Amino acid sequence: MAVSLQVLRTRSPGVLTALCPTRVVLDHVTSKWGVLVLAALADGTRRWGELRREVDGISEKMLASTLRTFEADGLVERRAYPEIPPRVEYSLTPLGDELAEAIAPLLDWVLAHAGEIVDRDASVQTRGSSVSR
Amino acid sequence: MAVSLQVLRTRSPGVLTALCPTRVVLDHVTSKWGVLVLAALADGTRRWGELRREVDGISEKMLASTLRTFEADGLVERRAYPEIPPRVEYSLTPLGDELAEAIAPLLDWVLAHAGEIVDRDASVQTRGSSVSR
DNA sequence: CAGTATCCTCGGAGATACTG
DNA sequence: CAGTATCTCCGAGGATACTG
C-alpha cells in the first residue's frame, strides 16, 4: 500500500492543496518535458545540443524554458564557457540529483508496463467502436 | 547516480523517443491531475465526492476525464452501485497500485524539498528585479 | 450523489526566423 | 553552437448549468 494524500496529510495537514507550494514544484516536475529533461541529465553533464537530441521531439523554446525553470528551482546548474563556438553545459545540482533518483522508479515502471497499457487502450477503442454508440 | 535516458536506451534502444508508446503512458501519469488522483487512491477505495474534496482544486470535468483515462489504462477500477442516491467507488487495480508505489518517492521528495525551492524562486525574483534588466 | 453537456479562455507549446 | 524573438494555434482545462 503506497502513501496516499490522506496519509501525507496526517503528517503535514493541508499539504498538496490548491495553494500549497508543493503544487508549484510538482507542476514543474510533471510539466510536459520535465521528467525527460531530468532523466537526460541524470548521469552527468550534457551540452545543449546533446539535450536537444536526447530529449526527442522537444523544441528549442521548450528546452530553454524547461532548463530555466529548473535552474531557478536550483535543480539544474548551467555553465557557459566563453569560447568560439560557444559551449554550454548543464548538470544536476545535488538537489536535482535527489529528484532524479526519486523519479527513477516511475521511469522503470513506465518502461516495464507501457506495453500492456497501450495494448489495452487499443483494445478498449476497438471494443468501444464495435459496441452500440 | 540515477538512471538516465542514455542508460535506459542501452537496455531498450529508442525508448522514450517521440513516437514511443512509453511517452503516452508517461503523459497520462504526468498530466496535470494524474499524480494527485493516483495519490488520493493509493491507500484504498474512494467515492467520487471524496476524490473531489481530496484532490483540492480539481474540476468535475477534469476529475471525470482523469479517472476515465486511468480506467482505460487499466490503472483504476470503477464500481457503480445501483442505488438511490447513487454511489460510485474508485480504486486502484494491482497495476495502478504498483504505479502508486513508483511515484511515492517523488511525492516524498516534493514534500521534503518544496520549501527550499519555492524560497529560492522567490529570492531569484527579488534579485532579478533589483539587478539591471 | 455522481456525473454530462456546453461554452469559453488562456497559455503551453510549436513553427519559423534571426543573432552573438 | 546556443540560444532569443515573434507569431500563432490548438486543446487542456475551467465555469456554469443541467440531469438521472
Automatic annotation (TrEMBL), chains A, B:
Name under which the protein is recorded: Helix-turn-helix domain-containing protein
Record lineage: Bacteria, Bacillati, Actinomycetota, Actinomycetes, Pseudonocardiales
Record Gene3D superfamilies: Winged helix-like DNA-binding domain superfamily/Winged helix DNA-binding domain
Chain ranges of the HTH hxlR-type domain: 20-118
UniProt keyword annotations, A-Z: DNA-binding, Transcription, Transcription regulation
A Pfam family the protein falls into: HxlR
